[in-house]
Amino acid sequence: MRIPVRFIASRVAFYLFTAWAAITINFFLPRMMKGDPVSAYMQRAAGKITPEAERSLRILFGLDKDTSLWQQYIDYWKLLFNGDLGRSFSNGLAPVGDVIASALPWTLGLVGIATILSFLIGTSAGAVIGWRRGSKADAIVPVSVFFSTVPYFWLGLIAIAVFSSILGWFPASHAYDKGARPELSFDFIGQVIAHGALPAITIVIASLGGWILGMRNMMLTVLDEDYITVAQAKGMPNRRVLWNYAARNAVLPQLQSFALSIGFIVGGTIVMEMVFSYPGVGKLLLDATNAKDYPLMQGLFLIITMAVLVANILADVAYAILDPRTRQTEA
């Protein structure tokens, strides 16, 4: 299977331009906002910072008033190439990269697994429901869509009230027991699974409706194609026609949506992490916004944007592999 060079070059050029635009906007956005991180930090310090210390902080954060905006922009790119995202005011001037790295595994573990599960379950269920159109299986669609229309906030609170407060099956908040220290042990892993099960199930239930409905509708369209009729006329088993022909083509539009979902995994589900007090990137972004921690906000926005771009690149590659028409059109 050969992917044309022109297809690859056009995609690389597009995503390089998009990455440059995202980084540039990420640089200028905090500087367009009222105030700046150093001024906000000085207000919290209540006059305990000397003018010399303020000057040092502005140089540290690339906000020196004696430096031109263009030079600040160049310096920002140099810092990025060195892997330096700045310092977080709300975390004792700790490196932003370290602060994000401490929260990222929790979000990838919770939202990542939940998103992948909801996609696999929803897409598979949608394919089967579409194949058996007109059967009792169609009743699953409105039920799943109903749960998708319920806001995450309410769904999370209902889950806590029922499965934590009343039944006591799952812990209500946090990623592990209070007083426990993160370590590689069966006891700690069990705590993480127990605390993450309820928010993960909630995310899966809230996301299933969209995947089921989208896949079912695409299956109804694909099943009317001639190649499906020909495959059935040749006497191929229904299972093979379903998965090798119908589902394989019907899933293509789902890949782009899945790519966006994978990209936004890094951003986390802010409302869900807030409801369950889960220490992920979403809650970290919320805390940074409340604290006006611009360097941390800037680093989080950059990481989220890059994750979405990488996910879309992977989706384009998968789309080109599964659908030859894409490669031929670009070529």
From TrEMBL:
> Which stretch is the leader sequence?
none
Instruction: State the compartments where it is located.
Output: Cell membrane; Membrane
Give GO terms for biological process: transmembrane transport
Bilayer-crossing regions: 12-29, 106-131, 152-172, 192-213, 258-279, 299-322
Could you tell me the superkingdom of the organism this chain comes from?
A: Bacteria
The answer, when asked if Transmembrane helix is one of the entry's keywords, is yes
Q: What's a Pfam family in this record?
A: BPD_transp_1
Instruction: Report the main location listed first in the record.
Output: membrane
List the membrane topology term(s). Multi-pass membrane protein
- What are the residue boundaries of the ABC transmembrane type-1 domain, all occurrences included? 104-315
Q: Which UniProt keywords apply?
A: Membrane, Transmembrane, Transmembrane helix, Transport
* Keyword Transmembrane helix among UniProt keywords: yes
Any GO CC annotation of this UniProt entry: plasma membrane
SUPFAM superfamilies reported for this sequence? MetI-like
Q: Which family does it belong to?
A: Belongs to the binding-protein-dependent transport system permease family.
Q: What is this protein called?
A: Peptide/nickel transport system permease protein
Q: Can you name the source organism?
A: Paramicrobacterium humi
